[in-house]
Input
Amino acid sequence: MALIVQKYGGTSVGSPERIRNVAQRVAKFKAQGHQIVVVVSAMSGETNRLIALAKEIQAKPDPRELDVMVSTGEQVTIALLSMALMEMGLKAKSYTGAQVRVLTDSAFTKARILAIDEEKMRADLDAGFVVVVAGFQGVDGDGNITTLGRGGSDTTGVALAAALKADECQIYTDVDGVYTTDPRIEPKAKRLKSITFEEMLEMASLGSKVLQIRSVEFAGKYKVKLRVLSSFEEEGEGTLITFEEESKMEQPIISGIAFNRDEAKITVRGVPDKPGIAYQILGPVADANIEVDMIIQNVGVEGTTDFSFTVHKNDFEKAIGILKGVQGHLEAKDVLGDDRIAKVSVVGVGMRSHVGVASQMFRTLAEEGINIQMISTSEIKISVVIDEKYLELAVRVLHKAFHLEQEV
Ligand code: ADP
Ligand code: ASP
Ligand code: MG
Output
């Protein structure tokens, strides 16, 4: 007998029929003698619908009220799934985040889980219930409802698995695993049998939204056995997220390609090339709580230099405004912005022991006439910023150049 946490995403619970299918899968595992905790998302489209509705009343919805509202999506699904399980003759009980309780900090719309009370769940499991918990939501120390950021049900799943010391956390979604890149962009993408935590963390933080970044962090920290699977297929081993030392097979140099359309680029032109200039530019940006991702400072020519960085598109206008405000003080010639960029990254632990990955990447893009605007690297990834209109082309040619295509 194993204790398994299963998480089902929005598409997987998108209709009554699909909820019944989920119930059937849960029943199958239960019949095998396992204890099951199920975490569900809101029905597909529901969270977006609720956010849009809020914006009809308040252009920038109050974060606390927004959380009260969007958390209702998951509350509907837990009840529906519990009913479906009961209809199949199983004992089931649903819990909201607050009822469990999933204790979080008070950062509305992007709260972090601090602790999980697993006693009630354990008592229910021992009494033969399937426990159904709302993903994406928690409660802070003062009893306020919080949510964990978009895609946060993954994190609920992994956090519950960690708290319950579950044997496995299974993330059921609309693809049958983690692919070499988003199969919606490159149909030749290949499912990975396994991927290391480190690589998955990079893929997630560089834009692969198949798992929320925090869920991967959690799984790595608490050593949760994590698997991504299809909720639409009966069989299949999915993708196991492994620790590097566990994976015996030799690693490919590149495991996957991630991309992100959510960033925008800002360039401060012609600033004096002197100590403190980076701080003078980024200090006010940081003070406004704007996160900066890639940063590039050119080599100074005749005493001046250009300084570029990227921010989330949501913060673009605000950041430009801040810099225009200090342009005189910075003695900058110009403040320029471009929100039609995309970031493409190649990721792989094999890069550590291989040279030439960067040059291969740059050559491949050059052959297609794709201009690289910014570059950043770490031990296991290389990212470039390009014009967003070349994003899909870049992903496909890189996928081919690094031999990631599906074997036929
Ligand atoms: P859920 O609602 O089940 O949480 P998501 O839409 O959040 O599902 O995540 C699944 C989607 O992630 C897939 O449909 C796919 O388009 C996208 N995706 C992006 N990158 C990858 C990747 N490398 N492998 C698999 N899926 C990916
Ligand atoms: N329903 C939430 C969202 O759409 C959480 C999730 O699906 O993981 O972001
Ligand atoms: Mg998701």
Q: What stands out?
A: DSSP finds twelve helices and 20 strands in the chain.
